[in-house]
Write a structure and sequence with these properties.
- GO terms for molecular function: dipeptidase activity; para-aminobenzoyl-glutamate hydrolase activity.
- This protein is an alpha/beta fold and 397 residues long.
- The chain has helices spanning 3-18, 20-32, 41-53, 100-117, 138-144, 196-210, 249-270, 289-301, 320-323, 344-350, 353-375, 377-396, and strands at residues 57-60, 69-74, 76-86, 122-129, 153-155, 158-160, 171-180, 219-226, 237-246, 273-278, 328-330, 333-335.
- The protein has 2 domains: 3-168 and 284-396, Zn peptidases (Aminopeptidase); 171-282, Alpha-Beta Plaits (2-Layer Sandwich).
- It is built from 12 helices and 12 strands.
- The strands form 3 sheets. The protein has a 6-stranded mixed β-sheet, covered by helices on one side. It has a 4-stranded antiparallel β-sheet with strand order 8-9-7-10. Strands 6-12 form a two-stranded parallel sheet.
- Strand 1 and strand 2 (69-74) form a beta hairpin.
- The longest helix is centred in the last third of the chain and has 23 residues, at 353-375.
- The radius of gyration is 23 Å and the shape is elongated.
- The mean pLDDT is 96.
């Protein structure tokens, strides 16, 4: 790294520190007012306010998603287009137990620091507000609408139990099984009824019987959301919601066929019928190793130890997987604490001092890596070459 680049990167880190109190207050405000997927009205407003004040061109409600946004800053000409992704939806009952208050704010903080520290940076910096990561797949909708087609690289940073830059993610889909039977009095005329609940329970057991014959990385998890209205009435309606995961979209579709076959046979076996509805398919994650290497170097330069991802298990799913099929993308993690995501303990950390420290580090790493891509054409080309090679292999295979 030449002296000019080293000086500018130091200035970027100092600028993030100058913004630290503002970022803390923003993150804590979102944390204290959790909003569910597609309902992130306050978070959208709070995240876009400082970007508008800094001169970013802000557009709300892109891709038909009212709580999405795009904030653009045009630096000097001749550079790449880099997107920093902001997530800000929460979970039911346990709030920001995935730390999206930190994710959204770190993207905003990185963009603000870049514009202030390096106003002539060659490049186009975009903060994309991507709603409904937890349930609904906002990034999938945005990817399908072409939002990422002209973007050279995409980044976001997630709090976790340990710092990693190459952790993968499974393809997944949520499926709702609605069984329809026929009501009857459960004591005086049960023979006239068809139990939708029995069909569901048989399906539940049948799905469990599949497990020994599925690959180790396949996950099929479900809950019963409706089992009937009264114990003395044969249930005419029963419902279950499942999340099905596999290593790739192709493998996921195979598992879905097996699960759906079980569900249909379970309904047929008791004379019921079943409706199957699917959510959007979350694709597997294609981590860009060259981009991850830049991010890791910036973390290590800050004295942060980076760990290898788990070789098996230990992964979930995210809609950035669909983005990574369109352009170069990474989804690194920075340690927040010992709690696991989607727990009350993690939600507490996301609003505590541990969360504020992670926020500062994430904003710095995002800003520094974006600077690398804009200031070093060779680094950018390596990132793009890797993605184009992967895309060609996928198209051919």
């Amino acid at each position: 790294m030449n002296q000019d680049h080293a000086h500018m990167k130091q200035k970027i880190k100092e600028t993030v520190d100058q913004l630290d109190q503002q970022l803390r207050e923003l993150s804590l405000r979102i944390h204290a007012n959790p909003e569910l997927s597609f309902k992130e009205v306050q978070a959208q407003q709070w995240l876009t306010e400082p970007l508008e004040a800094a001169g970013f061109q802000v557009e709300k409600g892109i891709s038909g998603l009212p709580t999405s946004f795009r904030a653009v800053w045009e630096g000097a000409t001749g550079g790449p287009t880099i997107a920093l992704l902001a997530e800000y939806d929460a979970l039911p009952r346990i709030g920001h137990a995935c730390g999206h208050n930190l994710i959204g704010t770190s993207a905003v903080g990185a963009a603000l620091a870049l514009k202030e520290a390096s106003p002539q940076l060659p490049g186009r910096i975009i903060v994309l507000g991507t709603p409904a990561e937890e349930e609904g797949g906002g990034k999938i909708i945005m990817a399908n609408e072409g939002v990422f087609d002209e973007i050279d690289a995409v980044m976001m940073c997630h709090p976790q139990q340990k710092t990693m830059v190459l952790r993968g993610a499974l393809a997944c889909v949520d499926a709702t099984f609605t069984f329809h039977g026929k009501q009857a009095h459960a004591a005086s005329s049960p023979e006239k009824g068809i139990s939708a609940l029995d069909a569901l329970v048989n399906a539940y057991a049948g799905i469990n019987s599949l497990r020994p014959y599925l690959k180790d990385d396949v996950r099929v998890n479900g809950i019963i959301t409706k089992g009937g209205d009264a114990p003395n009435v044969v249930p005419e309606l029963a419902e279950a919601v499942y999340i099905i995961r596999a290593k790739t979209v192709e493998e996921l579709k195979t598992v879905m066929e097996k699960v759906y076959r079980v569900v249909r046979h379970a309904a047929e076996g008791v004379g019921a019928t079943v409706d199957i509805s699917e959510g959007l398919i979350y694709a597997e994650r294609n981590n860009n190793k060259a981009l991850a290497s830049l991010f890791q170097q910036n973390l290590e330069d800050m004295g942060i130890e980076v760990h290898d991802p788990p070789q098996t298990g230990g992964v979930g799913s995210s809609d950035i997987g669909n983005v990574s099929q369109v352009t170069a993308a990474i989804h690194p993690y920075i340690r927040l604490g010992d709690a696991t995501t989607h727990t009350p303990e993690f939600a507490r950390l996301a609003g505590a001092e541990e969360g504020m420290i992670e926020l500062n580090r994430a904003a710095k790493a995002l800003a520094l890596t974006t600077y690398d891509l804009c200031a070093d054409k060779a680094a950018l080309q390596q990132v793009r070459n890797e993605f184009e090679d992967w895309k060609q292999q996928k198209d051919e295979g």
